Amino acid sequence: MLLNVFPDFVSAHAPMLVVLLPLIAAPLAMLVGNRTFAYWISLAASVCSAVLAFGLLISVIDGAILSYHVGGWAPPLGIEYRVDTANAFVLVIVAALSTIVLPYAKTSINREIAIRHHALFYACYMLCFTGLLGVTITGDAFNVFVFLEISSLSTYVLVALGAEKDKRALSAAYDYLILGTIGATFFVIGLGLLYMATGTLNLADLTEKLSTMETNRTMRSAFAFIVIGMGLKLAIYPLHRWLPGAYTYAPSAVSAFLASTATKVAIYVLLRFMFSVYSVKFGFERDTLQIVIFPAALIAMFAASLIAVYQMNVKRMLAFSSVAQIGYMLLGVAFLNVTGVSATIVHLFNHAITKGALFLAVGAIVYRTGSSMLPSMAGMGRQMPWTSATIVIGGLSLIGVPSTAGFVSKWLLLQSAFELGGWPIAFLIVASSMIAVIYVWRLVETLYLQPPLEGVQVEEAPLSLLLPTWVLAIACIWFGINAEMTVDAARAAATALLDGSYANGPVTVLGTEGR
Amino acid sequence: MSASSILLLTMALPLATCVLGLILRNKPNLRDGMTFAGTLALFGTVLALLFAFNDGNNGAVDLVAFQPGLSISFNVEPLGMVFALIGSGLWILTHIYGVGYMRGNNEKKHARFFACFAFAIFAVMGIAFAANLLTLFLFYELLTISTYPLVAHKENEDARKGGRTYLGILMGTSIMFLLTGIIWTYVLTGTLDFAPGGILADKVDNALLPILLALFAFGIGKAALMPFHRWLPAAMVAPTPVSALLHAVAVVKAGVFSMLKVGVYVFGIDNLSQTGASTWLMWLAAFSILAASIVAMRQDNLKRRLAYSTVSQLSYITLGMALATSAGVLGGGLHIVTHAFGKITLFMCAGAIYVATHKTEVSQMRGLGKTMPFTFAAFGIGTLSIIGLPPFAGSWSKWTLLVGSAEADQQIMIGVLMVSSVLNVAYLLPIFARGFFDPEAAEGDGLPWRQRIREAPLLCVLPPCITAFGCLVLFFFSGSVESFLAPIAAPLATGGQ
Q1: Strand pairing of A507-510 and B61-67?
Q2: CA-based diameter of chain A, in Å?
Q3: Residues A260 and A352: beta-carbon distance below 8 Å
Q4: In DSSP terms, which residues pair with B193 in a beta bridge?
């Protein structure tokens, strides 16, 4: 059952290798300093991680839990990597998206980043990738913070690299730096409080210790700090201010990678803390979800979508749409039933491929025309038909039209709303997706029904940009029609999160031999 | 070949036609010829499916699982079979007509036009054979999306506006109401399969039924029930072949077809009549019938007038469902067929007039019958069929609907149908009559009639003549259509498939 397609050593250390490979690739890329080498080693690390992550998902999909003791030190003192369905699913999202975006980045950064910075770009990209994987896989609270900072710090650099083309990237990166650091600080304060209250940082151990401490004020404060800290990282509506700038001015490949992975990982951490470490048994947590998260999610769905309608910069429009989509994901969490949480988890995946496809496609147009403003995309349906087609597919998936990935998420979300008897909420969900129709169609109309600007004559994007975009676009359709696989995985993950098996379930310890 | 694979072939064929059409985009003759072959092949396949169905094989097939217990699946039942026959049969004629129209009118972007057309037919086949609400919804939305480029075909400001209204209303209603209704049904009943006698019976509080019915009735925006009818006149900016097939047959009929299916297989007629959940819908449909007819009288643009006439006629079918009697549902099903033939004739004639003379307003068409006698003759036959006069097909469906109203003991509805016929006479017949009997041009120009004739190209004139002839033929064969449809009205008695 356990990863038996891999050699023994690999399967015994798979959870470690997933994170370690990109972590090794990053300094290598930097030290060698050759951009071709940097690219290939990054791609190799990314592909290996993706394969391993997929192997991990397969071995835990039936509810098994894998535990890996880093350096052979037993938890709760040593750092533990713990894989269940929920984080294996997120690992696959991150690693797969990274692998798809990297070949795209190779071409697209030629126009966006000075050649001397290319090796640096790959190094930061790998660090960011490492951080995201580490946050997801680790079973140690402080380790979450460490990896979170690895990914955040490298993200600030990645966003700032966009300054070659547009100086506003610097202020966007600076905004992100300040707000991201505040978020991280909140998070680490929360962890400190947890440590004070319980004396442990291992997530499974925390679960056990916290389960009898509902009235403890320290652990409640810790909850508040963690939720707000993560809220900043995942851009819950009023805390989203860093996101539009960062996504708009970052290089195209970075926008695509961040939009489809970074906030997803933050949501995963929130889910993990809410459902595995803390528990929905706690009255204060249910209150938080219903009184704080739920309205914030609803406001995000409407306010961010409405703002998106009025954006002239397409990347910015997509960024605001991301904020709105995060609202859907939080709404699923706030429903607190298995269907709702599986809607959230499946939307992590579906939104990752949808937004990834859209950012890549828009990036391809930017690559040719040099601008991400809406008017400059007029008539591109004729000049760049293949790229424009992916925008249509991605846009339809964003709206949630049947036969696209977005529909599956919406279906589950609506289903969970009805299971709770909340048909007014169901109505709000569909109403807000109507706003998505407006901003998507603004783009589609501009692409297809307007004559191109005077003197603009561009070719179709190069194949190296088209292929990754089309892979994601086809994934949008494939996982929209054949949704059984993703829905099953998401449902398993949601069940695992809600029934608390992360801490209590039977654990298989990996990598004990030969130590 | 098994019935299931024939069924899948009916969807594969238009899809293949669409793709091939795009590949052959620079070879117009080859492309149009290939598409024509595709239309014939599709009609043949649907006929083959009909024979298989008559042998008792319903070709049920599950394509892919969407969720555990819920999949994209298809099967054949009488109503869908009839809809598929109409759609595929009239596609042949519309394609011929479309080639004539697009070439005669020097329209642009033929490849995209015919490709979207074929894709729309693919969606129609999916709707016709959908075995559950999920599949129906999937293809319903695909139909909306694939017809949007057809509506906005001219790419000017009018077309953009029309396209926006079209997409906004159709997608808006379907996402806001239909999807909500479907998922609600799923949560309440645990299934979405179409089943004889309905799936909602005894599962839902009776007070909830009318609300659920409202979600479906308004959600199926393609049925153009007032107040969500505006997309239909807006879609008239499309080239006429689009208006003809899509907005007299495929799109609007997909709407009322879905309405009938939901009424018969989700709610169940018995359930509806016992609970009275559809009474409000009956009144709304009656209002829609009369109001749209009155609006139609005031339209000078011929296509807009026909569009409002369609809104009115579609509500006949909704009314048939809402009456919740077997004759009402049968009449509704029959009206899908007869109205399709009548209205497509009228639209094709309108297009032929436009190609030949570039006239779009009714007031400009006085005396035109003398130069375009074939077109106007066909128009006249279509008009009479829509009004419901024998010996044309429309008379039977109207008759059956009247019987349905009587069965339901709704004398007022009988009155509504009568008044509506009179209104039909008032807004359709004058076009035909003035075409031939124009007092101002009574003397004529002294030319022999053969020299006066300046018809549209043959490819534009022949198809409406054929469909007009169809109206006549259907009058004599509507009995067999009716007996074919009969099982849907009494599914529990015959046991269904």
Answers
A1: unpaired
A2: 70
A3: yes
A4: B132
Residue A438 has a CB neighbour count (10 Å cut-off) of 16
Max Cα–Cα distance, chain B, nearest Å: 76
Rounded Cα distance between A146 and A158, Å, is: 18
CA distance B254 to chain A (A): 17
CA distance B72 to chain A (A): 8
pLDDT tens digits, B405-436? 888 888 888 888 888 888 888 888 888 888 77
Tokens encoding A294: 């739920």
Which two tokens mark B350?
A: 């309108």
The answer to whether A121 and A109 are in contact (CB under 8 A) is: yes
Rounded CA-CA distance B2/B109 in Å is 38
Q: Are B287 and B196 in contact (CB under 8 A)?
A: no
B67, A484: Cβ pair inside 8 Å? yes
The whole-number average pLDDT for the span B454-469 is 81
CB within 8 Å of A288: residues ≥ 6 apart: A223, A224, A227
- Peptide bond preceding B227: is omega within 30 degrees of 0, i.e. cis? yes
User: Residue for token digits 């037919």?
Assistant: B121
The whole-number pLDDT of residue A514 equals: 55
Measured distance CA(A62)–CA(A2) in Å, rounded: 11
Residues in B touching A481 (Cβ below 8 Å): 64, 66, 72
Could you read off the pLDDT of B295-316 as tens digits, one per residue?
A: 888 888 888 888 888 888 888 8
The DSSP bridge partners found for residue A68 are: A81, A510
| Separation of alpha carbons A344 and A341, rounded Å | 5
Size of interface A-B (CB pairs under 8 A): 81
Q: At what angle do helices B394-407 and B373-387 cross, to 10 degrees?
A: 10
In this structure, are strands A65-69 and A507-510 parallel, antiparallel, or unpaired? parallel
Cis preceding linkage at B241, omega within 30:
no
Distance of alpha carbon B220 from alpha carbon B229, whole angstroms: 11
Alpha-carbon distance of B244 to B100, in angstroms, equals 14
Instruction: With CA atoms as reference, report the closest residue to A274 among A216, A149, A196, A190.
Output: A190
Q: pLDDT category, A515, cuts 50, 70, 90?
A: low
For chain B, say whether A419 makes contact (Cβ under 8 Å): yes
Name every residue in B having a CB less than 8 A away from some CB of A.
64-68, 72, 134, 137-138, 141-142, 145, 149, 152, 155, 159-160, 163-164, 167-168, 171-172, 175-176, 179-180, 183-184, 186-187
Burial of B290 from C-beta contacts in 10 A (0-12 / 13-18 / 19+): middle
Query: Closest Cα to residue B413, out of B281, B258, B267, B228?
Result: B281
pLDDT tens track for A370-404: 888 888 888 888 888 899 999 999 999 999 888 89
Q: List all residues 6 or more positions away from A233 whose beta carbon is below 8 Å from its beta carbon.
A: A148, A152, A180, A183, A184, A187, A262, A263, A266, A269
Q: How is chain A split into domains, by residue range?
A: 282-481
Q: Are A45 and A486 in contact (CB under 8 A)?
A: no
Strands A507-510 and A80-83: unpaired
Contact B396, B387 (CB under 8 A): no
Contact A441 B155 (CB under 8 A): no
Q: Which residue in chain B is spatially nearest to A480 when comparing CA positions?
A: B66
Q: Which residues contact B297 (CB under 8 A, 6 or more apart)?
A: B423, B426, B427
Q: What's the pLDDT at B439?
A: 61
Q: Which two tokens stand for residue B266?
A: 């989700």
Strand partners, A81: A68, A138
Reference B150, options B54, B243, B264; nearest CA is B243
Work out whether strand A80-83 and strand B70-74 pair parallel, antiparallel, or are unpaired.
unpaired
- The residue written with tokens 């109505």 in the block is A427
The average confidence (pLDDT) of chain B is: 84
Q: With 0-12 CB in 10 A as exposed, 13-18 as middle and 19+ as buried, what is B2?
A: exposed
On chain A, the residues whose CB falls within 8 A of the CB of B176 are 427, 430-431, 434
